[in-house]
Amino acid sequence: MLNSHTSQFLYDQVYDLIRAQIASGSLRPGDKLPSLRGFSRQLKVSIATIMQGYTNLEQEGFITARAQSGFFVSPSIDRSIALPSATSPKPVARDIQLSGVVRDLLKLSRTPGVVPLGLANPGGSLLPCRTLARIMHRVVTRSPLEAVEYAELSGHRELRHQIAYRSGMLGTAIDPDSIVITNGASEALALSLKSVTKPGDTIAVESPTYFLLLQLIEDLGLKAIEVPSNPTHGLDIDSLEDILEQFNVSCVMCVANFNNPYGSLLPDSQKQRLVNLVNSKGVRLIEDDIYGDLHFGEHRPLPLRSFDYQGNVVTCSSFSKTLAPGYRIGWIVAESDREEMLSRKHSVSLSTSSVGQMVVAEYLATAGYERHLRGLRRRLMQQVHKMRLKLGNHLPKGTRISQPQGGFVLWVELPRGVDALKVFSRCLENQVSVLPGTIFSPTWKFRNCLRVSCGHPWNESIDQAVKLLGRVTAAEQQTRGH
Questions:
Q1: How far apart are CA 277 and CA 267, in angstroms?
Q2: Cα angle for residues 12, 64, 84 (degrees, 5° grid)
Q3: φ and ψ at 51, to 5 degrees?
Q4: Cα gap 87→198, rounded to integer Å
Q5: 8 Å CB contact between 118 and 345
Q6: Which domains does the chain carry?
Q7: Strand pairing of 249-254 and 202-207?
Q8: At a CB cut-off of 8 Å and minimum separation 6, what does 470 contact?
Q9: What is the pLDDT of residues 180-209, one digit of tens each?
C-alpha cells in the first residue's frame, strides 16, 4: 500500500515505486507493468492515480504504451550510459585568460528564441512567481518607506535570521550577525575571494569547475591550479593534499554539494577530511553551496562549514537556483572576515535590494518554501533523468554522461576527437544553446565535453533541440573520422 500520511502525491509514489523497480533490475527492458485495474486493487488507490503515475513515467521515456496490450518498460532503458572519466590535470599554477571568451559565449547563448540548454537557470514555471508577487504587494503596502530605502549594509535583519534558522535545522548553528547579504552568489564569491587573497596568490579549484569562479580568479589577478575530480564523489582529497605540499596555495574553492558541472557530491567523510586538511595547512576554504537544497536523496547534504570548528570555512550561497534568480539575493557566512567583506561590499554595491530581501524573508518565515523545495526537487530530478536518457539515445556511441545526485546540469563527454566548440556553434546556428567544456577549465581542457542544463520543463522545443544536438554531434564525428 502507498503512504497516505505523507505530503507526496499518491501518483508520485506510484512513479517512485516503478522507477525503483526499474533501477534495481526487478523490472527489465521489455517487461510488462501491472495492469491499471490490478495495480489499483493491489495498492488500494484509484485507477486514475495509477494512470497518472504511468503517464509521468511514459512522458520521461521510462515506459511505453502499446495499444490493447498495456504498459512496458522501454527497450531504450537497456542502453548503458557510462559516466564521464575522472580528471587528472597536471598540478601547475597558471594565469587565466577566459573572461572575454566566456562573456561572448554567454551573450550568444542568451539570444532571444534560443532553446536554453546552456544556461543553468530553473524554468520560471517551476518557481512560486505568483506567491512572491502577492508577498511583494503585501510588504510594500505595509512598509512602503522601508521598501524603497537602502537596506542595512549587512542585510535585512529578518532575512539573516531566517537563513540562520534554516541552517540550524541542519544541525549547524550560525549567528545571524555572521551573515552578509549580497547581490547573488556572484558577489558573495567575489567578496570572499577579495577578502582572503591578494593579487598573485594561487587558488586551488576543482577540475572541471564553474566558469564564473575562473572569471573571478582572472579578474582579481590570481592564479589557478586544477585539482583532479571524480564525476560521482567530487574533489580528490589525496591529490589536493599533494598539491598543498608542493605549492603555496592561499585558498581552496569547492562546490562539495553537486558541483557545477559534474553534479558530484563529496561524501561526509571526505568533507571532514578536506576541512581538516586545509585547517592543518592554514589554507582558507571557500565553498559555494548554491545547489545544496536541490538534492535528489532523502536528506539535504551538509555544507562544509558543518565540519569546521575553527571558523576557517567561508560559505556562499543564494536563492537564485531555488526561488527567484532576478531578485539577486545571495549571502556569505563568515566570522573572522566579516568586517573586511562589509567594507568591500560598501565600496562596490553599498547594499542589496530592500524589497527583494523583505519578500524572501517573509516567504521563508512560512512553510511555503519547504513545500516549494519538495516539489522543485522532484521536478528537477525527473527532468535530469529524462534529459540523461534522451541524450543517451541520441548522442553517438561512446558518449559518457554524468549522473548527478542533485542540481540540474549534466556533463557530457563526447567521443574523443569531437570538437565541442564546433558542436556549440552549429547548435547555436539552429537556435539551440549548450556550453562547451573548455570554459570550465583554466587550461582549456575538455574540448570534447559539453554542459547541458535541465532546468526547464520538457516540451517539444527541448525534445527537438536534443535531437538536433544528436545530429550535429554525429555529423562532427563523421567529419573528424574523414
A1: 15
A2: 80
A3: -60, -40
A4: 28
A5: no
A6: 10-78 (1.10.10.10), 127-368 (3.40.640.10), 371-481 (3.90.1150.10)
A7: parallel
A8: 391, 393, 394, 395, 396
A9: 999 999 999 999 999 999 999 999 999 999
CB contact burial 187-222 (16+ within 10 A = b; e otherwise)? bbbbbbbbbbbeeebbbbbbbbbbbbbbbbbbebeb
Q: Which residue has the cell 570538437?
A: 419
DSSP character string of 179-246: EEEEEHHHHHHHHHHHHH--TT-EEEEEES--HHHHHHHHHTT-EEEEEEEETTTEE-HHHHHHHHHH
What is residue 482's predicted lDDT score, i.e. its pLDDT? 46
Q: What is the DSSP letter of 438?
A: G
**Cell triple for 75:** 527497450
What's the length of the chain? Answer: 482
- Could you tell me if 312 and 303 are in contact, meaning their C-beta atoms sit under 8 angstroms apart? no
Q: How crowded is residue 402: how many other Cβ atoms within 10 Å of its Cβ?
A: 24
Closest to 227 (Cα-Cα) out of 253, 246, 207, 250:
207
Strands 70-73 and 63-66: antiparallel
CA–CA separation, 58 and 254 (whole Å): 37
The string of DSSP codes covering 27-57 is S-TTPBPPPHHHHHHHHTS-HHHHHHHHHHH
Nearest to residue 477, comparing CAs of 430, 429, 420? 420
What cell was used for 273?
577530511
Render pLDDT for 38-69 as a digit per residue (tens, 0 to 9). Answer: 998 888 889 999 999 898 888 777 888 888 88
Closest of 243, 251, 266 to residue 405, by C-alpha: 266
- Per the CB < 8 A criterion, the answer to whether 421 and 436 are in contact is yes
Helix, strand, or coil here: 324?
coil
DSSP 87: P
Pairing mode, if any, of strands 284-288 and 115-116?
A: unpaired
Tell me the pTM.
0.85
- Spatial strand order of the sheet with 409-413 comes to 400-401, 409-413, 449-453, 435-436
What DSSP letter does each residue of 100-132 carry, written as one string? Answer: HHHHHHHHHHT-TT-EESSS----GGGS-HHHH
> Residue 64 has what pLDDT?
86
What are the cell numbers at 472?
550535429
Residue 168 in this model has a pLDDT that exceeds 90: no
Q: How many CB atoms lie within 10 A of CB 426?
A: 17
Confidence of residue 385 (pLDDT cuts 50, 70, 90): confident
- 406: pLDDT confidence band, cut at 50, 70 and 90? very high
Q: Quick one: cell of 317? A: 550561497
